[in-house]
Amino acid sequence: MKYIKCITVFLLIVANQAAFSKPIPPGSGVGDIPANILILLDSSASMKETISGVDDAINTPRDVIELSDGNIIVSQDKGGLVKFLTSTGEKDDSFAEGNVNFKGSTSDSNCGNQDSSIASGSGHNKLTFGVSKNVVDHVGEEIVFVVNENTGNGKVIAIDTSGKCVDVIDHDELGVDSGKGFSPEALTIKTIAGEDHLFVSGGYDRGDGDGDRGYFYTKNLTSGKTTSCNVYNSIVFRETNSITVADGGTLLYAALKGHVWKYQLEKIDDGSGGITYCPITVRSENVAAGGLNKEYYFYYKFRNNSDCISSTEKHCKAFHIQLDPDDSSIMYITGQANDLFQKVKITDDHLIPIKSKGIESKEKTIS
Q1: Which of 23, 135, 180, 226 is 20 to 30 A from 307 via CA?
Q2: Spacing of C-alpha 20 from chain mean position
Q3: Element at 126 (helix H, strand E)
């Protein structure tokens, strides 16, 4: 699976990079970082403005994913999804059935008249991607999944590469066991034992005056089997910026407030047609399952944002995370402080920096 995950706001890789009004941020093009790992997004204010110069404007970009043919789909806070053809660097005018922008519909005929609409955001609309080529009824096709975080009506929408809706996992379905729906915050897709699994983290309003509760949903995309997972430490799951899963479905990592939380994953097989995985969030059960009696990695606390680059023992404050697709002991981290990008080694106690780079061209390589 050729896959670039854009972590923060926007990265667009096209044949002619000179077409952009702003260069690719520091941290890009580092030789020992795989091409299919998303490279740091510039989180400065200027990158949150409209960017022109390709074929049309891109409005408040949120995430980007590279398809197997090299073309790119970008999500926007205000404007839905757009596809760029790397051969021309321009938008695909045939995308979304000729509408150019996929914004969905409140009654989408391609998805059984379900609501596939992507509400226009207010600068905080999360539109996070995942992609699979092993989805039931669509095996061999590339299907793109996108979280539309919208309080009260969040959903996961699946589209094909032409921009046509193929499925909607709506607010109620995501939180079916809660009876209150579920607003998704982050998703990831991982191939485990030849099957693709969708993991979605978020939360719902309990309606009892005690605020929101974390929630977790997982779906075996290859078999169609779904599971709603009971989770504790609910603030992690309802507010995480990013989740990523280790090879073999053994561990789940979640970024929250700069720290990286780690959970053992439990294999669920009730004999009803497909295996799913849920995070073990009760500490005693996590230890019994072979997990450490430590559920998170603290980031390096620093007075000056650039100082954390000099740390050889702890990672800098994490905003988004992604495991290396070929080595689950390696993690890539981006942070908003100085648009930091880090490659780290996962140990029992810390995330040890291997390479760090920030916007001020301060770089640290640990040999």
Answers
A1: 23
A2: 24
A3: strand 126-132
Token pair 């960017």 in the structure block, residue: 51
Extract the tokens encoding 328: 């689950």
Three-state secondary structure call for residue 149 = strand
Phi first, then psi: give them for residue 7, nearest 5 degrees: -105, 90
pLDDT tens per residue, range 150-172: 656 688 999 999 999 999 998 87
Q: Which two tokens stand for residue 93?
A: 């005018």
Note the pLDDT tens digit of each residue in 231-270: 876 788 888 889 999 989 999 999 988 899 999 899 999 8
Question: For residue 233, what are its two tokens?
Answer: 């430490």
Rg, C-alpha atoms of the chain: 20
Structure tokens at 138: 């669509």
For residues 31 and 154, the model is more confident at 154
Q: Are the C-beta atoms of 198 and 221 separated by less than 8 Å?
A: yes
More confident residue, 350 or 113: 113
- As given in the structure block, the two tokens for residue 285 are 């059960």
Of 200, 80, 356, 359, the closest CA to residue 367 belongs to 356
CA nearest 278: which of 203, 219, 234? 219
For residues 156, 123, 7 and 132, what is the CA-based torsion angle, rounded to 10 degrees? Answer: 20
Cα dist. 20→15, 23, 36, 50, 130 in Å? 11, 7, 21, 11, 25
What is the phi/psi pair of residue 331, to 5°? -125, 145
Given a contact cutoff of 8 angstroms between Cβ atoms, the answer to whether 260 and 246 are in contact is no
- Of the candidates 126, 156, 86, 109, which has an alpha carbon nearest to the alpha carbon of residue 320? 126
Exposed/middle/buried for residue 173 (C-beta within 10 Å: 0-12, 13-18, 19+): middle
Q: What is the per-residue DSSP string for 223-270?
A: T--EEEEP-SSHHHHHH-SEEEE-GGG-EEEEEETBEEEEEEEEEE--
Q: What is the pLDDT of residues 64-94, one digit of tens each?
A: 889 999 999 998 877 889 999 989 888 999 9
Task: Give the dihedral of Cα atoms 38, 170, 99, 139; nearest 10 deg.
Answer: 60
Residues in CB range of 322: below 8 A, 6 or more apart: 5, 7, 37, 38, 242, 244, 331, 332
Residue located via tokens 């952009």: 20
3 vs 351 pLDDT, higher one: 351
CA distance 90 to 98: 14
